[in-house]
Write a structure and sequence with these properties.
By secondary structure, this protein is α+β, with helices and mostly antiparallel strands. The protein has one domain. It contains five helices and seven strands; from the N terminus they run ααββαββαβββα. β3 and β4 (70-75) form a beta hairpin. α3 (43-55) packs across α5 (125-132). The longest helix has 13 residues, at 43-55. It is globular and about 45 Å long. Residues 139-144 have low confidence and may be disordered.
Length: 144
């Protein structure tokens, strides 16, 4: 049985069979960001940002590669408008290919710290910006 988050990732693949073959060989597969935006940040700062977002139920999938100190956040489209002024974050363009393992596995130290759950839940870019912005705290209105 396929993990729901893995099935969700496969639904965005240009060729799901090729992606599944790569994953069967424990290789990363490119999943284009066509239903969400990828925002890149340092892994350590991402761990700090995850706490307030998780507490208020606003945490979507987060892929991490601790050895490279990189985290990739899957956020709702429109992130470039809300996060452009935050130097700690890199917003990748629509269609950027996220090289990832399936939702339920780690390959070569890279894996999902917060797994896609199959429902399409994504991190809100405004709340992510608040978690990475000055003071790195979610304002009361963002916590709702």
């Amino acid at each position: 049985m396929t993990h729901p988050g893995t099935a969700w990732l496969l639904s965005f693949a240009r060729n799901p069979t090729d992606v599944q073959c790569a994953w069967n060989d424990e290789e990363f597969a490119p999943i284009p960001s066509t239903g969400w935006t990828v925002v890149e940040a340092s892994c350590l700062r991402s761990l700090d940002a995850m706490r307030p977002l998780a507490r208020c139920g606003h945490l979507g999938p987060v892929l991490v590669d601790p050895a490279a100190d990189i985290a990739w956040w899957l956020v709702a489209d429109g992130a470039e408008h809300h996060l452009a002024d935050l130097p700690l974050l890199t917003v990748h363009p629509r269609g950027w290919a996220l090289r990832c393992p399936p939702a339920h596995l780690y390959f070569n130290g890279r894996g999902w710290l917060e797994k896609p759950d199959g429902t399409g839940t994504l991190t809100d870019p405004i709340k992510l910006g608040a978690a990475f912005g000055p003071g790195r705290r979610l304002p009361a209105e963002a916590a709702r």
